[in-house]
What we know:
The complex is a heterodimer of chains A (114) and B (115). Chain A is mostly beta strands and 114 residues long. Chain A has strands spanning 5-7, 10-13, 19-24, 31-38, 42-50, 53-57, 64-68, 74-78, 87-94, 104-105, 109-113.
Amino acid sequence: xxxxxxxxxxxxxxxxxxxxxxxxxxxxxxxxxxxxxxxxxxxxxxxxxxxxxxxxxxxxxxxxxxxxxxxxxxxxxxxxxxxxxxxxxxxxxxxxxxxxxxxxxxxxxxxxxx
Amino acid sequence: xxxxxxxxxxxxxxxxxxxxxxxxxxxxxxxxxxxxxxxxxxxxxxxxxxxxxxxxxxxxxxxxxxxxxxxxxxxxxxxxxxxxxxxxxxxxxxxxxxxxxxxxxxxxxxxxxxx
Lengths: 114, 115
């Protein structure tokens, strides 16, 4: 069974540009969450989607947005990139909603903003 | 909001020695707790999880963790460290009043294993 796939793995963008990251969850998983990982702030929750609906949202500015498609694949978008957006963006998928459901993580997309 | 504290951002042990990574959470309601491991340039892999079934939880690769409500702790241990255990470890909790899969992570502990 294929794991969580994130594309691209690496990305370099210029300040002010926008970027779209993609996440394909494990087959059958309906919940997709996104996290930002930086050396200074650690792992921070961005948002979670379940059955195409945003269920939870972290404390990030409106420049960060996401969506989920009917096949559970998800994208996140960051507009007007800032240097501080440089980070590893991790996607996690879960079989169902629920607090004790294991989250399976992808390898992440490393975004560098120059 | 929940918070998770991992005492010690770096821990160094000798191969074969006991591994102890500390995690404390803040919650008046027992949360669900998780330990994840991250190898360089990789995502996170679940080691074990506590879901109120048993206070001592056994995970993969010989790791285990004990939930202590009175101490609001969920420390991770392994009796004998192996070189392959060198990685970063994250403790995480799920929000008690949230039906979704949102996790709050601790700051992480980088484990170094000396030969």
